[in-house]
Amino acid sequence: MARFETIDALPADSCVLVRLDLNSPIEDGEPQDNERFARHAETVRELVAAGHRVVCLAHQGRPGNDDFTTLSGHARILAEHVGREVAFVPDTYGPEAIEAIEDVEPGEVLLLENVRMCEGELPEEDPETKADTEFVRTLAPRFDAYVCDAYSAAHRSHASLVGFPLALPAYAGRVMETEYEANTAIATREFDGRVTMVVGGTKATDVIDVMDALGDRVDRFLLGGVAGELFLRAAGHPVGYDLEGMDRFDDQWERNHGTIESLLEEYGDRITLAVDLAYEDAEGDRGEVAVESIAEKETAYLDVGTETVMAYEPVIADSEAVFLKGALGVFEDERFAVGTVGVLEAMAETDCFSVVGGGDTARAIRLYDLDEDDFSHVSIAGGAYIRALTGEPLAAVEALERGRPREE
Ligand SMILES: Nc1ncnc2c1ncn2[C@@H]1O[C@H](COP(=O)(O)OP(=O)(O)OP(=O)(O)O)[C@@H](O)[C@H]1O
Ligand SMILES: O=C(O)[C@H](O)COP(=O)(O)O
């Protein structure tokens, strides 16, 4: 159980500073609506309904990156989800922001400007240093309490995440609370039956970290995606072909093949690899090939095959808990969604404790009209999810625990 306080304990009529994670894909300069808005809107709605004055902080991108931009568009999308106006001020702790904060009435919502535009937010430093920034020292006295809902950014030791909990009584919002409980389960909870971990996606290091940390707690790893192909390559199959202009496989192979080979050796009896893979044939249709019959590295494989899904289904059906990280194929293209959707459907059909994670992978649930309620939890976190799965502490969660309001 977490040792932080939740918004259930927030004193009535508070003026609250709420850290959300609205970091989103940006297209043509505009933020794209996604699950993060919907989830955080629930926390905001609850705070509003309780009559608190709600001022939100969030980030978008990083200085120097294309997706580093203002949050004015985010305020519009958040307003649609909350179902009421969300005012926006293009300032974080200067005079304009302070004036806007002072104008917030009970039940109203204000979003401040991208917190990463503000000096003191970055880089990652210890909570004491962050609490001592001008940013935190200026804003904190304007509020009665701090609420952290930004679970998906909780691995970052930034001022808005670890500084405020030292300066104000701190509470967890609903997203923080539910993500924490579900994602920590694999590292801390005892399950009676089989624990299965489905790992895919594009990042070999994610899969390596998970296996390194959870090798003893997971009974069966089912592999797919780019990571799965790298393990197939370690098993001697000539797969992992980079399409022109892409560098998904060879570079990761160079950097990680030693670790992948030794993981395969150490946990080989618990690792199940794809037996067939899918590709785009000359007509542009989905073709499938048995892994055993692949003789040369000359085709880009974009999904696991149907036989593989059929082999994974009974393992999932027979599990007490299933955790998924990363897609098994390029599910954004319907022709290559068979692996990801097949595994998600198998998870949805069982009564086991099931958690789906990875910012991108969770998107497949909406895209293919699966019902979120058929899973115990669908995480909206990427890096924080991996860290939670592997039992690594999250800086913002630790800060929340330290900042927990004390009984007088
Ligand atoms: N064989 C493959 N070739 C190329 N891309 C693939 C393949 N298999 C899966 N993918 C891609 O992997 C992506 C998901 O990978 P990623 O590692 O980003 O996982 P995630 O856990 O969902 O996201 P994140 O951790 O970044 O939030 C999907 O967008 C999918 O297109
Ligand atoms: O989108 C995310 O994963 C979080 O908001 C963290 O963002 P960052 O990787 O830019 O710190």
What does the model show?
The protein is an alpha/beta fold. The chain is elongated and about 70 Å long. It has helices at about 35-50, 70-80, 95-105, 125-130, 135-140, 160-165, 175-185, 185-190, 205-215, 225-235, 250-265, 305-315, 340-350, 360-365, 385-390, 395-400; strands at about 15-20, 25, 30, 55, 85-90, 110, 145-150, 170, 195-200, 220-225, 270, 275-280, 285-290, 305, 320-325, 355, 375-380. Bound molecules: adenosine-5'-triphosphate (ATP) and 3-phosphoglyceric acid. Adenosine-5'-triphosphate (ATP) binds near residues 203, 301, 327 and 359.
Q: Give the rounded overall mean pLDDT.
A: 94
Class from secondary-structure proportions: alpha/beta
CATH homologous group name of the largest domain? Phosphoglycerate kinase, N-terminal domain
Low-confidence stretches: none
Quickly give the CATH architecture of the largest domain.
3-Layer(aba) Sandwich
Report the span from N to C terminus. 23 Å
Oligomer: single chain
| Rg, Å, rounded | 22 Å
Number of domains: 2
Q: How much of the sequence is in beta strands?
A: 15-25%
Arrangement of strands in the largest sheet: 5-6-4-1-7-8
CATH topology description of the largest domain: Rossmann fold
Helix fraction, binned, reads 25-40%
Number of helices: 16
Biggest pleated sheet: 6 strands, parallel
Say how many strands there are: 17
Overall 3D geometry?
elongated
EC number: 2.7.2.3
Organism: Halopenitus salinus
Subunit structure: Monomer.
Family: Belongs to the phosphoglycerate kinase family.
Write a brief structural summary:
It is built from 16 helices and 17 strands. It is an alpha/beta fold.
